[in-house]
Design brief:
The complex is a heterodimer of chains A (about 90) and B (about 200).
Chain A (H helix, E strand, L loop, with lengths): L9 E4 L18 E11 L2 H4 L8 E9 H5 L5 E7 L3 E3 L2
Antiparallel strand pairs in A: 1-2, 1-5, 2-3, 3-4
Chain B lengths: L3 H21 L5 H14 L2 H13 L1 H9 L1 H4 L15 E6 L4 E6 L8 H4 L9 H6 L4 H7 L9 E6 L4 E6 L11 H5 L4 H5 L5
Parallel strand pairs in B: 1-4, 2-3
Classes of the chains: A mainly beta (about 90), B alpha/beta (about 200).
Chain lengths: ~90, ~200
Amino acid sequence: MAEVFGAGDRVRTARTDPPHHTRLPRYARGAVGTVVEPQGTHPLPDDRSRGLAAEPQLVYTVRFAARELFGTGDHDVTVDVWACHLEGIR
Amino acid sequence: MSEHHGGDAAVAARVRHVESLLEARGLVDAVELDRALEAFLSRSSPATGARVVARAWVDDGFRQRLLTDANAALPEAGASMGGGLQEQRLKVLENTSTAHNVVVCTLCSCYPIAVLGPSPTWYKSEAYRSRVVREPREVLREMGYELPPEVAVTVWDASAETRYLVLPQRPAGTEGLDEAALAALVTRNGMIGVAAV
């Protein structure tokens, strides 16, 4: 089951490269960021696009340092990530 | 998606085909569909977003409510994220003298149509979508907006169900203007975060 997070929690995105559609952008895979806020529950498009049953799950806005994503840059990027693509960092 | 206009034409042709199949089977009424789209788009233009921004500039209570729960606050300024279609969550991002926000959808072209109308062509371009997350200061500079190095930049990638609207900084020297005059100053690009107002 997907973990539940709160604002400020450190999380890592999945390091995945599925052969189908995914809403986890390539540039944000396997990256460490900080939860900004939960934004509600939505079915996972990765499953819906394949005609699979998709129970709504929490989606989180996650903030990343550009340096973490691209190795360069002084800005931040936020990405909206489904819970199943996140794991907590203790 | 590298050939943007070709992609648009192909998608438009598919949509027309699906629409004609739905009409032929009596599942949708063409007149009703046109009426719903017209009603939605007549309320959806950058003027709607501009009205929301101007209200936030003159009414601090509204500004706070807008930043906390935009969907609940929008009706106070005569706006909504519904408009006959499925209501989407809106998050409003406040620009300050030390923090700047820019909006993009790297996966497709998600955009707050209900408050800004249809998105500009450049917003859907491969170049903007792929570059602004990596080098926002350079992209904004090319668009004519030089951000001071001390201003922190956050790029918001609308990769899920939330739509984003930037609340630009109120321009200096506008203390004497009323809400309508202020709304006239607000630009679409300012509300995407690629220009100052």
